[in-house]
Amino acid sequence: MKARGAKYAFDKRSDSELQLWPSTSTERYVTRPFVSARVFGGKGRGRRPLFFWPEFSGADPLARYGILAAARTAHFSGYYQSRSGADFHLAMYTVDGGARLSSESEKFSLAKNSFALIPAGRPYELGSRPSGWKVVWFHISGDVPLPPRVCVSASANCARLRGVFGIYEDEIYSSSPSGQVLEPLAEAIFRLLGRDISDAAERARDADAELKILEVKNSLSRNWTVAEASKFFGLPPKRLNALFKRRFFATFSKTLLAWRMDEARRILSSAGSTLSGAAAGVGYADAFCFSKAFKRHFGMPPGQLRGK
Prior knowledge:
This protein is of the alpha+beta class and about 300 residues long. The protein folds into 2 domains: about 10-205, Sandwich (Jelly Rolls); about 220-308, Homeodomain-like (Arc Repressor Mutant, subunit A, Orthogonal Bundle). Helix content is about 40%, strand content about 25%. It has 9 helices and 11 strands. Strands 1, 2, 3, 4, 5, 6, 7, 8, 9, 10 and 11 form an 11-stranded mixed beta sheet that branches. A hairpin with a 2-residue loop joins strand 7 (about 90-105) and strand 8 (about 105-110). The longest helix is centred in the middle third of the chain and has 39 residues, at about 180-215. The model is unreliable at about 1-5 and about 40-45 (pLDDT under 50).
């Protein structure tokens, strides 16, 4: 993804970040903005401002939930951003239009009602589509544990969050914003955001588990034990078995046994196979123990299968 060589109303350049803002873009904070918003392209520049922020005193109601910054942004033409990694997490709800997001070797399309989560420290590039992009975004404290990779998915909470966010925005920009109104709205925003973050974390864990399951299935000759598998999956034995029961309707040990016996049957059906070779191929050091397990599983000794 490359930034286009066009004239921009605002640009932010540093060793770790590049942002290019067309003059048609606007950003409306519901928190205090970054210093750069005041210095570069904020109010009082003698032209239509790009950035808006509420003038309020006292504590930020969103800050108590680890939300460092939040805004509603509209890009009507080629906005571009790249970061080599930030010390905060970035969560984005696409309200309308779309954008392209890439992180290392992964590429994503952000469409209406999508939720994107970029963990702290993860490099990425982001560009709005020619039709424009409207987004509500949050910077979340990097102390909050999140999945290690970028996650993008459809969000059932997007419309609700946009509605609550809009009420919060109206109140904080009013002439006399009320903490009694803002505080429950801030909690509602946090709860809705938390649902999507939890869902993203669960999907990331499931994706990691699927890769590890595949690795186990492709290394049946390895001497897998429950203790070793628990360490490999990063799960205690009880949760490891719960994962395999949910996925395969059996514990880790029973699933592993079924895989090994199916693979052994495949090996023994091949021309030139040997009993010791089949045993070693599925993690048995002793052909006798393998023969007993095979007969117990299939109701016939492995030699009988080889004879067919």
